[in-house]
Design brief:
about 150 residues, about 50% helix, single chain, 4-stranded antiparallel beta sheet, alpha+beta, 3 helices, about 20% strand
Length: about 150
């Protein structure tokens, strides 16, 4: 008889106990799962903006390095552009060294023409960084006109 009463009491309390257990599990699951941040909050937008600035900055840095280093020379291993002088909006005079010989080229859109071929080097490759190309070219051309 006592066993029947205990069984009946447990059966009556079973729905209440199971509901309490489910609520406890739900609370623990909610506490264990981190809350998702709002994707339109200032923090998320700031993080997105900083990532974008970082990627664009990296692209610009790599482009600058490629220009600075001139990349890997493909076919013109014996050729070197020593200096360039703008003559107009789209025209330039370019001093090129091929081996030991230097040439002055006129470069325009769609056209490259040989202006002068020098017997002796006009500019030393080591001096080029600090030398003023226009002044040196004027000296060489004035010497050539006097001959």
């Amino acid at each position: 008889m006592i066993l029947a009463r205990i069984s009946c009491a447990l059966l009556c309390l079973l729905p209440v106990l199971s509901q309490a257990a489910e609520e406890g599990v739900a609370k623990n699951a909610a506490a264990a799962r981190p809350a998702m941040p709002d994707p339109l909050s200032w923090g998320a937008i700031g993080q997105l903006g900083m990532g974008l600035v970082l990627v664009v900055g990296l692209i610009l840095l790599l482009a600058w390095l490629v220009r600075r280093v001139n990349g890997v020379p493909a076919g013109g291993q014996g050729m070197k552009v020593l200096a360039a002088l703008p003559l107009g909006q789209r025209e330039r005079a370019v001093l090129v060294q091929v081996g030991e010989q230097q040439m002055l080229l006129g470069v325009a859109p769609g056209r490259v023409s040989l202006l002068v071929e020098f017997d002796e080097p006009v500019l030393d490759s080591a001096e080029i960084r600090g030398a003023a190309f226009a002044e040196r070219l004027q000296q060489v051309l004035s010497r050539g006109a006097e001959r």
